[in-house]
Structures are given as C-alpha cells and as structure tokens.
Design brief:
The protein is α+β, with helices and mostly antiparallel strands and 611 residues long. Helix content is 45%, strand content 19%. The chain has 19 helices and 19 strands. 35% of the residues are buried.
Length: 611
C-alpha cells in the first residue's frame, strides 16, 4: 500500500483500545504498539511527518501494511503489546535481551593460588564459588577480597615471575603483598588466599568473628606478628563493609533508572537496591534511538521490556524523567508485583543524588561506546534538565559584545559541540549598524547577520549552515529580549537564554525573559556553562583588543604629513607593527602600495627626527 491508502485504512479503524502491528513488504513485523484509541494513534503515522522523530520517519517509510487486534482496555493492550514484542522482537521497538547469565568466582589450585572473576565455569581443577546472578556483586566481592587480604590482581604468574620486574602501583599503595618481590613466604601467601576464600564464602561478619578469635589466640601465645596481621585484616574488612553504606535510606527496596542519549544511540542504567544497599547494576545500550529521541516514550518502552524479563518488581521505581503512559504501566507493574508500585521523579535530596549517580553511569557507559568522556554528556544532560529542554543540546552557540566606551564595537561567537569547543566554527563580527554603547542593538545585528548566513549555507551543514540546539548570550533578560524577535522573524524555534554573572564576574545563573535559574547546585552543568561564558568573553575581548590596537596605531600614523587612512592601512598590513615601520628604511617604505617618495621620507623623519 502507498501512504494514502495506509492513511485511509487507519482512518477506518475504530476508536477502541488495541495493539497495532506494522509490517514491511516482505511481511516482517517491524513495529508493535498499543493505543487507547487505534484510529487516532495509527493515523498519526501516515499524516504529516514533520513532527515525527527521525526513527519514526524511517519506520513509516518501510511500512507496507498493518494489522491490529482489538482488546477490552488500555491495560489489556499493554499486556498484549508486551507479549507480542517478546515473541517477535520487532526491529523498531526498544529490545532488551535477558543476558543475566551466571558468573563465578574462581580460586585456582597450586602453591600460589589466585582469586578471579569468571563468566564461565571450566573443567580445570580450580574451585568455583557460585553461580551468581549478579556480575556486579561477584566482581565487587573479588575486588574487596583482593584489597582486604592484599592479594595480587595482575596477570603475573607465580612462582615463574617472582623476582622479575618491579612491583606495580598496588604494592606502593598497600593493596598487594607483592609476591613478585620474592619476600612473601609461600605458606603465608596460601594462608591469605584461604582467609579470602572464607570471606567470600561466609561474608564479612563471620570472617571478622573468626579472625578475631585467631587474633586473640595469637596474642595469648605471644605471636604478635600474626596478631598484628589479623588485626589489620579485621580493620580492612570493616572499612570495606562501611563503604557499602546505606545509600538509599529513604527507600529500602527500589530500582533507579536513568537514560543518556547521544548521536542516535542511548544507554539505560539500572541501579538495584535491596535493604537500602546497592546490590546490582545493569547497563543496556540502545543502538537506534534516533537523533532526536522521544525520551518519555523510550522510558515507557524500556520499563515494559525490562520488567517483562524480571520476576521481581520492587515497590519503588525511581526514574529521571517523564514516562509515557505511566498510569497504565503502573497498573501492569502493580499486578505483576502483587502490590502497588510507585514511580518517583525526585527533585532534591538524597534520592536526587542517587538518581544523578545512575545518570552519570549511563552517560559514562555511552560515552565509552562513542569515544567521548562521560562528564561532558552528564553536563549536557543536566543542562537540558535545568532548562526544561526536550532534547540534549549537542550544539551550543554563545555570543558576547566587546567595546571600549562604545568605540570599536565587536562581537564574538563560539560554538560547543557535545560539550567541547568547536573552534573551526568560531566567528568574529565587526558591528556595522550600531554606534556607541548599545549591547542590545549590537546583539540584534549580530544574530540577524548570523541567521541570514544560515539560510544561505544550510545545505552545507557546516559553519553558519549548522543550526544550534541552544543559544547562550553573555548577559541577562535585556539581551534575551533584544534577540528573541530575530529568531521569531526567521521562524526559528531555538532555546535562548542569558548567562548572568555575580559581582565577582563569575557565572551565577541562567535567565530567560521571565525567570532566573540557579545552576550552582548542579556541578557538571555549572562547569560547562562557566566554561562557555569564559570562552566567549575571552574570544570577543581578544578580537576587540586586536581591532582597538590597530585603530590606535592607525590614528597615530594619520598624524604624519602625507599619510591618509589608505596609506596608514597599507603600512600596517605590510609591516604589522609600528615598531617595524619605525625601523624600515625609506627604500622599504617606498615598496608599500600607494606610497610616494615624499610620503616615505615623511614617515622616516617622523620616527627619526635626529636624522
């Protein structure tokens, strides 16, 4: 079917709840969705595609026909959608695989055994602890045991590598006994591994009790060296245990879920808490979220897929933003759990800090996949949340005006892409239509010229042809009010804000025409905005100083008889500085375009009156 036929079929659908199944020309299911009113939802796909995200547009282009199933309620539609997605795994739905395979802790045999984390159990004669469902827990337990009992985590093999090479950093920071140095007895090392195995098998409390008993016995027989070693181990166990503090005191059992999106890809991170302690962490990379992802819709799809793969649903699920169809989704989660489930979006306090930790983790995981740094994506995500933006601002433009008492007016434009300066897109402007000290008029002129260039170069997608996702002006409400009509005149819907400084000229807040938004409490966003404001100020001021300096030099040359504006400019273009002009002989001065012998002699006499 063509698009017109698809729309006609969609308009004939009933206004009832149901599930729709999009198929391509080969009959393959490419998308499954639910709707409270099938006619309204499905017909949206085949109308104007201007409001559709890129991912939806690509899906619609491949639709050849669709089927539908009527149900009794939106809740039934959700349950059926979940079942069909698990069964057919459509290309354009967010798909998660239940890849929670078992993992193990391996304790090798021999005189110098090693403890390690393994994903598979092998028939190699080693002792394996497990299986464990949580790789996060198993890996953390191995790392804790290695630190407490000072066991090596490197790839060296003992006794083959004893005495070869220097000990690594872990030895110097007292996190390894360094058998590679050859100063640890084999019996002492084996005893440490055995104690670590007991710690892993029975936990910290039992290990502390047993080591305390052994320490007291060693003291009674005056083996103070062994007693001191046990004392240090007990202290290390307690220290590690204290680090695993209750980080979710408000909600003992909960899942915390956050998403990061960049460059068409996304990552959902899940932190799982039980009895107030973090006991598992999961990351899910989403390969195709589109350049402008629908985050509320993506969260809804993720929650549906994630909990369809899990037997346990916690009483509280903390999320980092709006969730599409949250009410019906909560009904399904509550039924699956057997008790009511709450969906939280914290705005402050400890819960917000835990959510930020989850968002940082998602950003870091995604950044590693994209070859970026996680803190940059975190900063952009924070900034989007603070400003109420629907999407992360990947391209940010910033503007500042610089002048000296209204003379030599210039402007600087800097561009940041994904949190980093994009210096090839920096631009400088000489103010042409405004004289005197008028920052509002200057900004209006600069933005008018900038977006006029955009419509001439937009097909290139480079330089002025690249449209920003956010504009930040160095200034307050007045600057924003002056520039907003420019955007309206060009029909551009770009978020526009001003960057406000405090009395010490440090970034304090972001403002639009009606409110100020404090950013000092959001460290990553504050650092990014401060960097942008400092960079645009530096760029504009450096250009102003350059222009002002040249004008000053030009004025000094105009004092010489026979030197007008044209010859003064030609001299500065050739020699660059007044010092070099002063040092030039008459013969070199004559080589300058437009110079005559009397003019060259006048310049020479001006700088050499003694001659």
């Amino acid at each position: 079917m063509d698009r017109k036929q698809l729309r006609e079929k969609a308009m004939a659908l009933p206004l009832r709840p149901g599930v729709y199944i999009m198929k391509n020309a080969r009959g393959e299911i490419i998308y499954i969705g639910k709707a409270k009113a099938l006619k309204n939802r499905v017909s949206q796909y085949f109308g104007s595609d201007r409001s559709h995200p890129e991912k939806v547009r690509r899906m619609v282009e491949q639709v050849d026909h669709f089927d539908y199933i009527l149900v009794g309620s939106e809740f039934e539609a959700l349950v059926l959608e979940c079942s069909l997605i698990k069964q057919h795994q459509p290309k354009y739905n967010i798909l998660l695989k239940d890849d929670k395979g078992y993992c193990y802790i391996r304790i090798s045999r021999g005189d110098w055994p090693r403890i390690s984390f393994e994903m598979q159990k092998k028939e190699d004669g080693a002792e394996y602890l497990g299986p464990y469902m949580s790789a996060f827990y198993a890996r953390s337990a191995v790392e804790a045991a290695q630190k407490i009992f000072l066991l090596p985590s490197c790839s060296r093999s003992f006794p083959k590598d004893i005495g070869k090479g220097r000990p690594c950093l872990n030895y110097h920071i007292r996190q390894c006994c360094a058998p590679c140095r050859g100063r640890v007895r084999q019996e002492e090392y084996a005893e440490s591994v055995a104690a670590a195995a007991e710690f892993l098998k029975h936990g910290g409390a039992d290990t502390v009790r047993e080591m305390t008993r052994q320490m007291e016995e060693a003291s009674e027989r005056m083996d103070y060296e062994q007693a001191a070693r046990l004392r240090d181990r007990i202290a290390a166990v307690k220290k590690i245990t204290e680090k695993q503090k209750v980080v979710a005191a408000g909600e003992k059992d909960q899942d915390v879920i956050a998403v990061a999106a960049q460059g068409g890809k996304g990552c959902f991170s899940v932190l799982r808490f039980e009895d107030g302690r973090l006991y598992d962490k999961e990351d899910f990379l989403i390969r195709d979220m589109g350049e402008e992802p629908d985050l509320p819709g993506a969260r809804g799809e993720f929650l549906l897929q994630y909990y369809s793969l899990r037997e346990h649903v916690p009483p509280v699920i903390t999320v980092d933003g709006e969730v599409q169809d949250s009410e019906v989704l909560l009904g399904w989660l509550s039924e699956k759990r057997g008790h009511s489930v709450k969906l939280l979006l914290p705005q402050r306090g400890e819960k917000r800090e835990i959510l930020q930790m989850c968002r940082d983790n998602a950003a870091e995981t995604l950044a590693q996949q994209n070859g970026r740094q996680g803190h940059e994506l975190t900063a952009l995500t924070e900034l989007a949340s603070l400003l109420g933006l629907s999407q992360i601002p990947h391209v940010i433009e910033s503007y500042d005006i610089s002048h000296t008492a209204g003379s030599d007016n210039v402007a600087g434009m800097v561009v940041f892409r994904d949190g980093r300066p994009l210096k090839k897109n920096y631009r400088r402007f000489q103010i042409q239509s405004v004289s005197g000290q008028d920052d509002y008029g200057s900004l209006k002129e600069v933005l008018t010229r900038r977006f006029a260039e955009y419509f001439r170069e937009k097909d290139s997608g480079e330089g002025f042809g690249l449209l920003p996702d956010l504009i930040l002006l160095d200034g307050g409400k007045g600057q924003v009010s002056a520039v907003r009509p420019v955007l309206a005149a060009y029909g551009l819907d770009i978020p526009l804000f001003g960057m406000v400084k405090d009395s010490s000229h440090r970034t304090r807040a972001i403002t639009d025409e009606g409110r100020e938004i404090s950013i000092t409490s959001r460290r990553s966003a504050f650092t990014l905005v401060s960097s942008i404001q400092e960079e645009v100020h530096r760029f504009a001021v450096s250009y102003h100083r350059q222009k002002h300096g040249k004008n000053h030099l030009r004025l000094s040359l105009l004092e010489i008889e026979g030197i007008g504006p044209g010859r003064a400019q030609a001299l500065l273009t050739t020699f660059r500085t007044v010092k070099r002009i002063a040092e030039a002989p008459v013969e070199e001065l004559l080589q300058v375009k437009g110079m005559t012998l009397p003019a060259a002699q006048a310049v020479y006499r001006h700088f050499h009156p003694e001659d």
